[in-house]
Amino acid sequence: MSLPGTDRFTPMPAAEPVLPSAATHATSRPRVVFMGTADLARTVLQNLADDPRWEITLVVAQPDKPVGRGLQLQPPPVKIEAIARGLPVVQPARARDPEFLEQLRALAPEVVVVAAYGQLLPPQLLAIPRRGCLNVHTSLLPRWRGAAPIQWAIAEGDTETGVTVMRMDVGLDTGDILAAERTPILPADTGQTLHDRLAGLGGALVCRVLPAWLAGEIDPVPQPAIGITHARKLTRDDGRIDWSLPAAVLDRRIRAFNPWPGAFTTMTPGPGQPASLLKIWEAAPMPPPHPHATATPGEVLAATGDELRVATGDGVLRLLVVQREGRRRMPSREFLAGGALKPGDRLGVMVDKNTAMPA
Question: For 67-126, what is each residue's pLDDT tens digit?
Fold first, then answer.
């Protein structure tokens, strides 16, 4: 029996865990290993751990990473969640580490569930669970395979996206599909709001799919050979505003790259003054007609009250919430009250790409 199609399903210290084994967990509940690292994976883990139909015998996350100016080690969100729930956690440097693979074999899990783990899994690992490894991916595959499907779906103007549960193979998001669920991309969606919605959908979907999958009642479907797109990993410079692009495209990119890498441009407060960075948190394209059709892209057209309007390659973009370098984010009205910009100023003068931006 197959499940319905895509329209419905369409710094915390941690002691070295004492890992259970298959022998020490003689139980009627299926043994599930969860692999994930980021915030999205934490939501999926919460859904799985709250469900009594299976036992989470091990949580696998990537190693703690140094963050901030002090470079203090910070545990990933999944590790924090696992420790709070009393679940054993391991953090191998690589998913192919022989010692880790032996630990996994000793557990003899029925299935491994993966979400936002951050590494490709080797064939040796994929072969360990009796029912394979399932991945919760935040797109409607085969569209947006790769590292940043949420952001690129918004940036490229998709009107809908979703989550897919697939059986993993050695490729990058190329496995057969068990189920998927759709959701519209709303006009006000940001990378963060869509991330949070898809995390909840993904956690709920895998919990609906898992019982039938473990019972052998789902026939996975190969991904279509057409419609394949790739969501490459984001870089900081993806947030740099190119004012020659249309206003509608810039609006999408500002929303897509919120909160990271964030959309930013440069501003020159006055003659002889150095350019500084300006982060743009919210904006909106102005409806036509546009009386400044011949204005240079990046030219400030209005800078009074709460009207901060900038010419683009096609249309006008109204900036709503901005943040000066070294300052807090604020509405445009508050920003303009300080006389930061005036009509005729230009945004987008190139400066050192490595200049720091506020968090």
Answer: 877 889 999 999 999 999 999 999 999 999 999 999 999 999 999 999 999 999 999 999
- pLDDT at residue 350 in the model: 58
Pairing of strands 307-311, 55-60: unpaired
Same domain, 227 and 249: no
Tokens 């998001």 sit on residue: 173
SS3 317: strand
Domain edge (last residue) among 177, 198, 231? 231
In angstroms, the CA 303 to CA 319 distance is 10
Distance CA 310, CA 233 (A): 29
Name the β-bridge partners of 88: none
* DSSP β-ladder status, 230-231 and 145-146: parallel
Taking residue 154's Cβ as centre, other Cβ atoms within 10 Å add up to 24
Which residues contact residue 23 at a Cβ distance below 8 angstroms, ignoring those fewer than 6 apart? Answer: none
Q: How far apart are CA 167 and CA 174, in angstroms?
A: 9
In this structure, the dihedral spanned by the alpha carbons of residues 142, 146, 148 and 149, taken in order and rounded to 10 degrees, is 10
Please count the structural domains in the chain.
2
- pLDDT tens for each residue of 302-313: 999 989 999 999
Within 13 Å, how many C-alpha atoms sit on residue 51's CB side? 22
- CA-derived radius of gyration, the chain: 24
Same domain, 114 and 191: yes
Q: Is the peptide bond before 187 cis (omega within 30 degrees of 0)?
A: no
Q: Distance between CA 107 and CA 359 in Å, rounded?
A: 41
89, 65 contact by CB (below 8 A): no
Q: Where are the alpha helices (DSSP H) in 19-118?
A: 39-50, 77-84, 98-107
pLDDT tens track for 239-282: 999 999 999 999 999 999 999 999 999 997 666 677 889 999 99
Collapsed DSSP state (helix, strand, coil) of residue 160 = strand
pTM of the model: 0.88
CATH of the domain at 264: 3.10.25.10
